[in-house]
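Possible regression after last week's pipeline update?

I re-ran a chain I had predicted before the update to compare outputs. Posting the input and the new output here so someone can diff against the archived version. Not blocking, just want to make sure nothing changed silently.
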Amino acid sequence: MQRNATVSVSWPMFRSQCKTPLPGLARCLFHASQRLRYRLRRKRAELEKTCVELMESRSAQEKLEVENKKLLETIAGLQQRVSQQCKEIRLELPPDQPQPGQQFGPRMIELCINLAREIGMRPTVRVLTIFFRWLKLKPRIPSKDTIRVWLQRLGVARMQKTGKLKDAVWLVDETVQIGKEKVLAVLAVEQEKFQNNGRSLAQKDMQVLAFRPATSWTGDSVAKVYSELSEVHGSPRAVVTDGGKNLREPIKTIKTKGKKPLALRDLKHLLANALEAQVGSSEAFQEYTKRIHQTISAVQQTELAHLAPPSFNRRSRFMNLQKHINWFCMIHWQLTHPNSGARKNISVERMQEKLGWAAEFKSAVKNWKACQHVISSCLQFSNSAGIYHGAATDMLAKVGHFATCSSSKAILNQAVKYFQECEKSLRKDERLPISTEILESGFGSFKRLERHHSRGGFTTLLPVFATLLRPSTAKEILIAFKTVKVKDVQTWLATHIPSTVTSRKQEAFREARSKNHATL
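New output (post-update):
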């Protein structure tokens, strides 16, 4: 007993008391076996715990697999039901019952008219065909000729619908195409639509009073139209024209109980004439236009074609000078930057030979740019603000700092003087438009609708002009088609367009094909 107690004290003491090494070795083996038994018991406990967890995980996995299988079966069933329902559902267009005497409903007519306003009649048919084919629908699609008749009927209806207008402002201009015919356009806007809105006029604000062709519009013929329109729609408060004598002088003949209508001049035309007076007669401008024409011919079939200048329109070159100023600024930059991307594969010598002349006009174009800046700023002001008491002062405050040369100052002074003259005739707190740009934009819309037909002169599309000013609605179409029939359109065309260039051309070919003429 005493020995065992001694052995358990410490290893050095135990070893010093042993006579041989065997007791020490036995002690080491004993303690090693105890440690191994302890580790074995611990590992067995961990193993048992791991086995339990593994069994629980396998059980949970089996449950999840069962639930997943049920979900997959549910999804498959739902997909089958949805697929079956999709097959049963048929896409249908909204109800669109045709009115008596019509083959198409008002909704289809509305769609076709509004599309044709933007893209034309023939493209409308193609677009609707592609769209309905994509929807897997097979509705009846009207022909281009049918759409044309709809546009004509709505246009005539809009012109006939316009009644008496109080204190309206007439915008008058004429436009030409091939042949001798000119179209006189008279649009009206009620003063209250422009009085306090502080924005430029929009096409939807306008009413078409007349859109008539004639071989020439003299002062007498224009006066006759003014008289007819004033009897139907009332005398205007003011008439805005481009300043042409044949349009301006007949304003005096308009019968009115009160004060005579004001004869206002479109500011854009007035400033274009002022620009022509300041710039057009100068030697620099004459030489510049000469060089422009020479350069166009010299580079349009070469590697410099992308640098060719825009052509000059002889009739409106001073109303479109900005594009030439932009071109000059671009060319001036290219001449001073030989490594630009636009000059790739173009030698310096070649660039100088064809376009180097532009550097000679740097100072002249700088003055033209100042003039154009003054004009653009004046037009921006007048288009939105119009003419009113104090307009000349307000415009000078906003535009005056742009006048940096003698020519631009002269143009600005002329604009201010004109505003001051107009203000003397205005009533208190009155505001009137002084621009016909909205009318010119209407001409642009009309020419886009005509496309290549404009090459043959004015056609029977003339009454369509009123349709282009604003979109139509199914309700408006129902009312318009009840009052204007196809015969009414034919009467309007016979009255205002007795013959056209196209109809006379067709007549010439028809006569040549007749049996009474000898063949070659």
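Follow-up from reviewer: compared with the archived run. The first helix runs from residue 2 to 7. Marking as no regression found.
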